[in-house]
Amino acid sequence: MTTSAETTKTEEPGWLAAARQPRWTPEIAAEVVRAWQKEGGAQSAFMRKHGLPRERLRFWSRRRAEWEQKEKPAMGFVPVEVTPEAPSQRRQGVGEAVVVEVKGVRVRVEGGASQELVERVLRALQRVQGC
């Protein structure tokens, strides 16, 4: 026979016991931050619910954001090949252009640019900017 206290007891997440320790390892902190993000809501409400110090989650969520910023690749140069246009191509693309702006980076594609070149430039921009 089970008592009512036993039947209403909810199972604790695996990370919670480790999170109750005085210090968090980066791995435990990452689990707690992920759990908070998955659950949503305010940090203070999440920490209160689990009986953990509120400031610790704030510290580790900021630190994790800094780590994620450092992991992004730095902006670099992409090799480009410039060749003179044939006279017939110059007349085709006069005045035609498309401007693509992504996260503050603007790319202007003049008329007559090959699809392959545009794809390579946009792929390089995607790798660098993480779009």
Automatic annotation (TrEMBL):
Superkingdom of origin organism: Bacteria
Stretches the record annotates as Disordered: 1-21
Protein known as: Transposase, IS66 Orf1
